[in-house]
Amino acid sequence: MVDMLLRLCNNLFAMNNRIAVLRADRKESRQDLAKAIGVNYQTVGFIERGDYSPSLELAFIIARHFAVGVEDVFSDKQFEQLIRKKENI
Question: What is the pTM of this model?
Answer without folding.
Answer: 0.74
